[in-house]
Design a protein that fits this description.
242 residues, mainly alpha, MetI-like fold, 10 helices
């Protein structure tokens, strides 16, 4: 069976082990990990960006987390957790922890970098108008940080989705099942089909976050981001067009 035949086979699109069900499991694990990473990384990133402390430590820790081998860490966490956790949670918890560790660095970096690089003229104007530091953070720095924050969340999401296939190594459902089961059955079509489905899902989420960024980020900040990426641009911030 070739790849196209496997992807279009109605049998693979029905039942609890079909493609829709496995996509649902894959998205469920990914959503849980992303929400947990947001809860951890956004407040910590705001604190670092606001106080200016701990940036070097966080940058080093983020690089260390990115270097961790996901599959090896998954097995290690399973061995540590299995004596104290029972039921299906013993398989789910290590998977979520690994995905969260991958997702925290880009969200954290995007958050504190966005706050620290907020337009100094806008911050100075708010200070001159009598805004307190918390008001400047909420009304000026966080809105200016949105482009980098969204970019960090998008990067984290893509890493989670592409890595969530390792859940299959602990017997969990998800698109990784097609890759692992295909390998066990020497079915190249199933393995390739699973990989293609992961890639399609990642692309869909990539375009979704690109659209979301255009919806929630001010047009003025979008223009600023585009201009600042040019080596000849010196513009930092432009006011949004009414």
């Amino acid at each position: 069976m070739n790849i196209v035949a496997w992807l279009t086979d109605p049998v693979n699109w029905s039942g609890s082990g079909g493609i829709p069900a496995q996509v649902g499991y894959h998205l469920l694990y990914s959503a849980i990990a992303l929400l947990a990473a947001l809860v951890i990384a956004v407040p910590l990133g705001v604190l670092i960006g606001y106080t200016g402390r701990g940036e070097a430590l966080v940058a080093g820790s983020a690089n260390a987390l990115r270097a961790l081998p996901s599959l090896g860490l998954l097995v290690l966490l399973f061995l540590i957790i299995s004596p104290v956790v029972a039921g299906k949670l013993v398989y789910v918890l290590p998977t979520i922890i690994v995905l969260v560790l991958l997702a925290v660095p880009p969200i954290l970096t995007g958050t504190y970098a966005g706050i620290q690089t907020a337009d100094p003229d806008a911050v100075g104007a708010a200070r001159g108008m009598g805004f307190t530091k918390p008001q400047i953070l909420l009304r000026v720095q966080l809105p200016c940080a949105l482009p980098l924050m969204v970019s960090g969340v998008r990067s984290a999401t893509l890493q989670i989705v592409s890595t969530a296939t390792i859940a299959a190594y602990l017997g969990l459902q998800g698109l990784g099942r097609f890759i692992l089961d295909g390998r066990a059955q020497a079915s190249f079509a199933e393995m390739a089909g699973g990989a293609i489905l992961v890639a399609i899902l990642a692309l869909v989420l990539e375009f979704t976050f690109a659209w979301l960024g255009r919806v929630i980020v001010s047009p003025g900040l979008r223009r600023t981001t585009a201009k600042s990426s040019s080596p000849i641009s010196t513009t930092v911030l432009e006011p949004a067009t009414p």
